[in-house]
TrEMBL record:
SUPFAM superfamilies per record: FYSH domain
Protein name: 9958_t:CDS:1
Ribosome maturation protein SDO1/SBDS N-terminal domain ranges (all copies): 8-97
Length: 130
């Protein structure tokens, strides 16, 4: 799945929990789906995966939620049931951090948002944080 600047996370946070579960979807389609459940989910979400923030909050590492985690949080490990629940009860969060859309709509480039210089690959500069 490739995430573009137009993709949005639909995030659900269970009460009394630090866990956050989310799916990637089109906000306009999610709003339409909430009013008309006959719209196919395939037109609403970018993938049929449920993700979670491992370390809690928006700054943690995102990964696919395990069946056990889904069972504990939603009472089911059925991805479709969980996705529908998140779409119905979740909140929107733009997922544009770390992505850049070029002026050419057919060409999108992923940018790396680093918090430092990192490791030098130059022959003249060896080591970390030169």
């Amino acid at each position: 799945m490739s995430v573009s600047q137009d993709d949005t996370r639909v995030i659900y946070k269970p009460k009394d929990s630090r866990e956050e579960f989310f799916v990637f979807g089109n906000p306009d389609q999610v709003l339409k789906w909430r009013k008309d459940k006959s719209i196919p989910i395939a037109e609403v979400v970018q993938s049929f995966d449920v993700f979670e923030i491992v370390n809690g909050g928006n700054e943690g590492i995102a990964g696919r939620a395990s069946k056990q985690r889904l069972e504990n949080a939603f009472g089911t490990s059925n991805n479709m049931e969980v996705i529908e629940y998140i779409l119905q009860h979740g909140n929107f969060h733009k997922a544009h951090k770390g992505h850049e859309k070029s002026s050419d709509k057919k060409h999108r480039t992923m940018i790396n948002e680093s918090r430092g210089k990192g490791i030098s690959t130059s022959a003249n500069n060896t080591g970390i944080h030169n």
